[in-house]
Amino acid sequence: MKILEVREAVKYYGNGGNITKALDGLSFSVDKGSFTAIMGASGSGKSTLMNMISAVDTLSSGDVFIDGVSIADMTDEQSADFRRDKLGFVFQDYNLLDTMTVEENIILPLNLRKEKVAKIQEELKRVTDIFGIGHLSAKFPDEISGGERQRVACARALITSPSIILADEPTGALDSANSLRLMKTFSELNKSFSATILMVTHNPEIGAYADRVLFLKDGVIWNEIYKGDRTKKEFYNDIISLIAASGGDNDVF
Ligand SMILES: Nc1ncnc2c1ncn2[C@@H]1O[C@H](COP(=O)(O)OP(=O)(O)OP(=O)(O)O)[C@@H](O)[C@H]1O
Ligand SMILES: [Mg+2]
Fold it and tell me: Is 204 in the pocket of ligand 1 (CB under 6 A)?
């Protein structure tokens, strides 16, 4: 079942003589329960695409559908509700609030929804168990490690049971051990909890955890590959080969 559909997405930034076409008529869809990575050189439009899907900015033309609902048709209020109820965000800089404890950060989306205390406690336990971070509840973000902060951010993203998890360079600020740990968590969420994940990454090793990789170039998808029956190592090698074939530099991707 399709959970996300991007249709003929075009995005221009700027005006007058200073216009950038960041998305150039891009279309794809994402099935429920899939794990998709988006790769591409710096400036290829990855973050722009994520911002359009998350409705924080609007397309110049085209549309995005989530659970069959068109983002273009929403009012600002509908769009805010939609982001809160349907989407879970995990970003490179965590976006945790420094003046709140770990627990307060995690339950924030449910407090904003004015959920009952018992329900909030139940969901809190569920997500802190998944990430093994229950013992950090009373700490503040600046009292825990970068890897722990990222797990807290993931717990917050999942506490509303979103339709889709959107992650833009989620491992960007992590060392390789914590990056792999986060990818194992994503895989587990995807396989055991059927979470739908759409993740931007520069790193082919991280991309190989997905079951499909979309390659962006100049605002369009120029290629895509599915993992299929391949091992992670084989998939990684195929991702690298494709990047090399495109004339891309691995460090840039
Ligand atoms: N707010 C903005 N105003 C003007 N131009 C923008 C804006 N945001 C992005 N761009 C331009 O749009 C293009 C796509 O940018 P985008 O941030 O989507 O790239 P990206 O693939 O996420 O790159 P990176 O890997 O460096 O994060 C670039 O040419 C960028 O300079
Ligand atoms: Mg970006």
Answer: no
Residue with the smallest CA separation from ligand 1 atom 17 is 47
Domain boundaries, given as residue ranges, for the chain: 2-245
Task: Check residue 55 and give left, alpha or beta (phi > 0: left; psi -120 to 50: alpha).
Answer: left
pLDDT digits (tens, 9 = 90+) for 169-196: 988 888 888 888 889 888 988 988 888 9
159/193: higher pLDDT? 159
- Write down the CATH superfamily of domain 2-245: P-loop containing nucleotide triphosphate hydrolases (3.40.50.300)
Q: Atom 28 of ligand 1 has which residue's CA nearest to it?
A: 43
Other beta carbons less than 10 A from residue 91's beta carbon: 19
Q: How far apart are CA 210 and CA 232, in angstroms?
A: 9
pLDDT of residue 251: 47
Beta carbon of 172 within 6 Å of any ligand 1 atom? no
**Regarding predicted confidence, which is higher, 202 or 38?**
38
